[in-house]
Amino acid sequence: MATNVVKQIRRNTRRKFSADEKIRIVVESLRGEISISELCRREGIQPSLFYRWSKQFLEAGKNGLTRETKRDASDDEVRELKSENEQLKISLAEAHLAVLRYKKASARKRPVQADASRNETGGARRGGAFTVFGAQDPA
Questions:
Q1: What is residue 130's three-state secondary structure?
Q2: Is the N or C terminus of the chain more exposed, i.e. has fewer CB atoms within 10 Å?
Q3: Under a CB-based contact definition with an 8 Å cutoff, are residues 128 and 110 in contact?
Q4: pTM for this model (two decimals)
Q5: Are 137 and 129 in contact (CB under 8 A)?
Q6: How far is CA 86 from the centre of its chain?
């Protein structure tokens, strides 16, 4: 019970460092003016915590430098890609409509028996016209 109270007090009194403070400490160590152990003592942090911050700092810098080779898309490129995407969607929709029109036209040309209530594939007819993808012939 007493250990829980002590842990709770430590958690509540734990010092939290902002990102700017962490960067300041790591950059100060990189200058090499003072030893890391002395810096950690002065700032009141454990060396393991300092090395963790240092690793994160250097990894972030590494990612920033390597990202240039990947080349992020500019605003103009994004707009161009969005425009191309929209044109492709329109083209696909037009092609889909052309396929539907072709299927309807070919279904009308097929001879239909007058007394048959079902088409050749066993599907039902509606109002004398075959349905394609659930849509009825508007004529």
A1: coil
A2: N
A3: no
A4: 0.41
A5: yes
A6: 19
